[in-house]
Amino acid sequence: MNRRSFRHLLPKTLSLSITLGLGLSLAEISFATPIDGHNLADDKVVAAYFAEWGIYGRNFHVKDIPAEKLTHVLYGFIAVCGPNESLKKANPQGYSALQRECSDQEDYTVTIHDRFAALEKSYPGDKWDQPIKGNFNQLANMKAANPHIKILPSLGGWTLSDPFYYLANDPQKRAKFVQSAVDFIKKYDFFDGLDIDWEFPGQPGANPDLGKPEDKQGFTALMQELRAALDNLSQQTGRQYLLTAAVSAGPKKIASIDYSQVSQYMDYVFAMTYDFYGGWDNTLGHHAGIYAADHEKVPQYNGHDAVNNIIKAGFPSDKIVMGVAMYGRGWKGVNGSLPDNPFTGKGGGPLPKNTQQGTWENGVIDYKGIEKYYLGGVNGQGINGFKYYYDEKAQAPYVWNADKGTLITYDNPRSVKAKGAYALSKQLKGLFAWEIDADNGQILNAMHEGLNSDGKPPAPPKPDPDKPKPPTPNPDPGDDDKPKPPTPDPDDDGIAEWNASKVYTSGDKVRYQGKPYQAKWWTRGDQPGKGQWGPWKLLTGQPDDDKPKPTPDPKPTPDDNDKPDDNDKPNPAPDPDDSDKPDTGDIKDWSATATYIKGNRVKYNQVVYEAKWWTRGDEPGKDQWGPWTRVDGSPDPDKPNPDPDPGQPDPDKPDPDKPNPDDGSPNTSGKYAVIGYYMLGPDEINKYPAVDFPVSNISPEKAKMLTHINYAFIGINDKGQCDLLKGANEQKSAEVFQLLTNLKQYNANLKLMFSVGGWAFSNDASPTANRFRDAASTPVTRAEFARSCIAFMKKHGFDGVDLDWEYPRKQDANNFVALLKEFRKQINQAEKASQSDYQLTIAGAGGAFFMSRYYHLLDKVVEPLDYINLMTYDFNGPWQGVTKTNFHAHLYGAKDEPKFYNALREVQFNPPKTWEEIKKLFPSPFALTADAAVKQHLIMKVPRNKVVMGVPFYGRAFRKAGTGNYGLYQTFNTQKGDPYRGDPTWLVGCDKCVERNEPRIATYADIKKMLAGDFGYKRHFHAEAKAPWLHNAKHNLFVTYDDKESMKYKTDYIKQEKLAGVMFWHLGQDDQESTLLKSLHNGLNKK
């Protein structure tokens, strides 16, 4: 290939004098630096990130950076001291290294991360007594040899972004950070400015619980103050310093930065136009495409839309540097695709790690590895069973092994040249790449060639309106970035008529009943004009497209049980149009123990009623606000209630525009659920009955106080079926189940449930976290999971299933609803077949952080359920960034307690709520409390007679707590994480804590003994929070728990709010003499 020779646009001779904080000096240097024979017009940027850790396994060092081909090098990453939980979770070793660096620094100050890599590793030419070696010395040498190059420290990164969320909105913390960042580049003065890599302002990043709307202003303030500080430094040194940031390409994250304001402070942004799709979930797509593909799952997940969105947000195009990927993202086990289009299928997990081939982490592979092991050379067409493809529309390559189901999407020289031409056509500043050690030179050279092209990028081919496109599923995207529909062209001619059997994708146009429509996403069979939330947008007479519009979730395919199934109904409902006064002969009498859903009809006192929503045990005719309405509209015979006047609201139909906390059907029966969990782990099962709390400890008196016992836990095997937890003996398990069943001899109404999952099995960091996700992912897997659980239920004599998925992610929410619908359908079928009464419950989040993942669908989540057991405990503990003692299960908030950002403010409601409504419904900051959790459910119209409030039969202990205020709201120092690895003896008086090797959790039985002994504990009670605590001044201990006094307030609350009842964790933690179970039972049943 012929290349035009050129020289980088710098003076032929430059006198440069830089005094470095490394004890080095760059004196008078004369140079003329070529960059691989390319002439970058208009001072374009060609930048690349250099990863600090590349010096290890990849064996890529600063000396290997092709500096002559780059204008900028970004050093990744420099850390910030302070809360770094994301790093701790992802890389405990790296976290420990950072803690050592921060041991003598204040929080929110800048620091190196890996001291050895940055400052200590020796290279040829280093002297033994040289104070600074490592990467920093090598970078200084590189700059001395290539004075044209700009070197920036990149502060933050994916797992190092947590501190930004805490400092950006706090003027004092922000000032501390700004000053330390400037001090850092003064000390290491080969750096030419600062690059901020906060992932992501206003939105969750590696830590799903961080990100709030206020970050938008915080990011602006941070940029403003950094710019001012750098300008001040310029006055001192006479040098110009750059201020840049790596920014997301996702629509929602773009909207979380005020680009029109920050543009005045920043030199440019590095738009990360890659990682649109990847192995973190099984949704397939091009991870670095320029344009949207035909199979695109999320319309604006491409470089073109990202660039346009940033420009539309008010940021100049000549300050945008577009991202290039020097790596690919891959999936294994792709299935369900059309033969020639893997993207129509679903991934089976990330490509496995193989460092020899350049896969240094699961799902990610270096470009040079792709070229060598999958293409067979830069122009190769595929080897080892792989075939090379290029998507002309998206301008994106991929390799595909159909036999093995392995797919890799990446950037190659062709797509990168197209990006360079695209950047010229949009008048962008240039291109940058992540990361330089993954390239073999091909990608970097292509960046130059693209930026030296004629500036005419390949245009995506226009779709053939008559050519059906392959059907694609519509999974929820990973971070819920739901873009606006594309702007229509009302003057388009020659639009074909809508065809109910055809597949349409985003942007396709049709005509229906004389009107033109445009598809907002994939659709087939959805009639245009049926509703504003559907997949079609009318192209004429529409409001201003520049105004924000709500975008609904993608419509599920028919397989997702979106269509009602007769089997979902316990009792078939007659057609209400058959007669004004239906024949009551075919309608069954109302039963207090039967389950009814909306539309079911019953006969009671010779009057026909129809259910307005799910109900069980609510007597028809008792209450006009209840779940029953008379079919013929006449008043109850025992209660005068004239028909409403024509045109007046029907009292049986709640006003949808008026908030009504009783929309969810209060519990008026006077009977309350008392649900207790009984837990045995696999080890305890296997040594049963030699355990702390065998079934025999559940006395007849206790059995009579309970309505339900939930056995915990059952797992999900690798086939997606209900199964015993790994290691649990089958015969021993069956014996325990039988013993539980025998308790019915003391209480014939006792329900025995089994709970599937649990925190250890299903939390995001668990090795089995994908079991629930996969089981819920398709109609087939949902049906099999439900079938296996119901078979398990019947085999062992249980009365229902309790699903304890902690917790579905946002992208799992729709599947979660579909899973519960499938369970309800199959349970109803099982009930009909066996004439039994089976129940379905879930353990629901009590805190807003996890609740927010599925809150927008909460009413649909609860619809198929008998109860939702709210885990209204564990609100506070040593795992939090807030390092002050607090109650873990208090009923109400106290004015002095540490508050939290309300994550429910981030929920995308449909229909959308105004900001004023959101502020009123979800105050922030707020206290995590039981009352808050209940009210948050009632806001979403969850029926009160389904809400079960959770209480703990255990306390949480904090070590090294401050002594002020009797230990309450004081700083503490207690080990985080599981399992516990510290000293098990520090909770004095808790012998069982030592046996369990867990002093952070004390059972109620333990606490009673601790109080009774001479250990120095004093009980206190908070009148505002309605919560007790223990303080041990001698040993600086704080214990938060529930006791009889707090339980009395909680049972009164349950009755006052007309909730379904109470749930507790767990039976084995109760004190056998002075039982909390008895307090709950008496409190709920006392008139």
UniProtKB/TrEMBL annotation:
Keywords: Carbohydrate metabolism, Chitin degradation, Glycosidase, Hydrolase, Polysaccharide degradation, Signal. The keyword Hydrolase applies. The keyword Kinase does not apply. Its EC number is 3.2.1.14. Residues 544-569, 579-589, 650-661 have a biased composition (Basic and acidic residues). GO terms for biological process: chitin catabolic process; polysaccharide catabolic process. InterPro entries: CBM5/12 (IPR003610), CBM_sf_5/12 (IPR036573), Chitinase_II/V-like_cat (IPR011583), Chitinase_insertion_sf (IPR029070), GH (IPR017853), Glyco_hydro18_cat (IPR001223), Glyco_hydro_18_chit_AS (IPR001579), Glycosyl_Hydrlase_18 (IPR050314). Residues 448-502, 518-596, 617-669 are annotated as: Disordered. Residues 44-454, 672-1087 form the GH18 domain. It holds the Pfam family CBM_5_12. It catalyses: Random endo-hydrolysis of N-acetyl-beta-D-glucosaminide (1->4)-beta-linkages in chitin and chitodextrins. Transmembrane segments: none annotated. Residues 1-32 form the signal peptide. This is chitinase.
